[in-house]
Amino acid sequence: MRILLVEDEPTLRAALRRDLECAGYVVDAVDNGRDAWHLGATEPFDAVLLDLGLPQLDGLTVLQRWREAGLAMPVLILTARDRWHEKVAGIDAGADDYLAKPFHTEELLARLRALIRRAQGLASPLLRCGTITLDTRSGRVTLGGQPVTLTSHEYRLLAYLMHRPGQVVSRSELTEHLYAQDHDRDSNTIEVFVGRLRRKLPPDCIETVRGLGYRLQGGA
Question: Chain-centre distance of CA 211, in angstroms?
Answer without folding.
Answer: 26
